[in-house]
Amino acid sequence: MPSFDENLMLIRVFQDKKTLGNAAAEQAAAAIRKAIAARGQARVVAATAASQREFLEALTKTPHIDWQKVEVFHLDEYIGLPVTHPGSFRKMLIELLIQKTGITQYHLLDGDDTDPEGVVRRVGAQLSSSLIDIAFLGIGENGHIAFNDPPADFETEDPYIIVQLDEACRRQQVGEAWFADMSQVPQRAISMRFWQSYLMPAKRRR
Hints:
alpha/beta; globular
């Protein structure tokens, strides 16, 4: 497990979601520009859901980002949910980020593929081929990041895993109005194992 210096954590509090989204977008844009300037490419992980709307709206309006040099990886997706469903994270990622920026390098998690294990292997191999520059993440009501519901699996070495969603996580999806009731919320999902070492700067990996 990587170790972290708690003194490096900066906590900022904002008055509303729009102000928070604008500040996060400014920081994300700076990281993207820096990566492109250094290596000619930026590799990012993008989350969706309600918590990301203001942020993605601000980010896609930010000037001076060469989106053709940005490669995007999908954080998580329900298993068995078509891309046409309002709750599909692929749908949101396409509408809120990809279509607005014209990004051509992106890796979506096809949750309704008949072989989800194959999706996990294929996108996982692409993700782990090089370090990620920045990840856009939110924290769920039950403490989950991506779909790693607590207690998360810290033993697996796979970049993506198939997880069973707990009741608190599924209730949140109903509360955000993506589904009419619990019976409609999928019980499984594909999730990035976000603490993987390739998400950490090289000097901090152990």
